[in-house]
Specification:
By secondary structure, the chain is an alpha/beta fold. It has ten helices and 15 strands.
Length: 323
């Protein structure tokens, strides 16, 4: 089978290679999926680079445990291991796998869900990590009808789904994005947009937000709090640009401490994937209530180009690989 590999940790896409590898065999509780589409997220870059160093034991020491990149997938069940229930050969599925930038990938059964016929491969592949994170963030923030919600990074892979989920819940959403993405973010249902300089300014004339969902991972919490209602909630989603050891995740780790003695809530999101969550997201997409947006779709052999595009910034939604 074809696969996109790197043998050593690398922060750049130059070391990625297309290589022929044997088709993996599923073990107990595992499913072999014929991959039809996969997608990029910052999680793939972190695995490729082996950063932050705090995660190296999970990624592999001193070299990657898994040379093949990729986690999100959509495809067809090719084989099932012992003890697998709920999936059969020929089923359409989406979910999280191990080394999904390949013609075939292994996935744990509990991280898969049956894919409705109404959802195409590329759309489905853009959903697992970003969709699960977005849904967990909206729930952690207790988003509901009428709440004033600010989404930072509203055009990104996770942020654009948070906007849609919050709008679907009846919230009044403002999106923070680059000026060139204003129309895109408004098309998702946001009532207005702000530029990234908003955090350095006083709270705007419309008042403060009930909930701030921050997918950007760089702004100081003390700056965000002046835009937050006195009993509001900030949810910190992931982190970037915070050094090689913690990689920006220190904001998530220490966020709850910032709210001590205050009515405000600070949540450092720990997102998890599961089959039921994926099934719920797939149903939302099939019904038309939300839809992952795909900025570009590339063939497998152009995976390095996709990684460069994602790291360059300005991507609206997700980048997908179609096999």
């Amino acid at each position: 089978m074809r696969a996109i590999v790197r043998d050593e940790y690398t922060p750049t896409a130059d070391a990625l290679r297309l290589r022929e590898l044997p088709v993996p065999v599923p073990g107990a509780g595992q499913v072999l999926v014929r991959v039809h589409a996969a997608s990029f997220g910052q999680d793939v870059w972190h695995v490729m680079a082996g950063l932050p160093l705090l995660a190296r034991p999970a990624f592999g020491l001193p070299r990657p445990k898994q040379p093949v990149l990729g986690g999100d997938l959509a495809g067809i069940v090719e084989a099932v291991g012992d003890g697998v229930a709920g999936f059969a050969i020929g089923d359409r599925v989406l979910g999280r796998g191990d080394g999904t930038f390949a013609d075939y990938a292994i996935a744990r059964a509990e991280l898969l869900a049956v894919l409705p016929d109404a959802v195409d491969w590329v759309t489905a592949a853009a959903l697992p990590v970003s969709g699960s994170t977005a849904l967990n963030a909206v729930r952690a923030g207790r988003v509901r009808e009428g709440r004033r919600v600010l989404v930072i990074g509203a055009a990104g892979g996770v942020g654009h789904l948070i906007v849609q989920l919050a709008v679907d819940a009846g919230a009044v959403v403002t999106g923070v994005c680059r000026p060139e993405a204003d129309d895109f973010v408004r098309s998702l249902g946001a009532v207005r947009t702000l530029d990234y300089g908003f955090a350095d300014r006083p709270a705007d004339a419309d008042g403060r937000y009930d909930i701030i969902l921050d997918t950007g991972g760089r702004r100081k919490l003390r700056l965000l709090r002046r835009h937050l209602a006195s009993d509001g909630t900030i949810v910190v989603v992931g982190g970037e640009g915070g050094g090689s050891v913690l990689g920006g995740f220190q904001r998530s780790i220490f966020a709850p401490l910032a709210a001590i003695g205050s009515k405000q809530r600070m949540v450092g999101l720990v997102s998890t994937d599961s089959g039921p969550v994926l099934a719920e997201l797939a149903a939302l997409v099939a019904s038309g209530r939300i839809r992952p947006r795909v900025h570009a779709t590339l063939p497998l052999e152009r995976a390095a180009d996709g990684m460069r595009m994602m790291r360059a910034g300005g991507v609206r939604g997700k980048i997908a690989l179609e096999l």
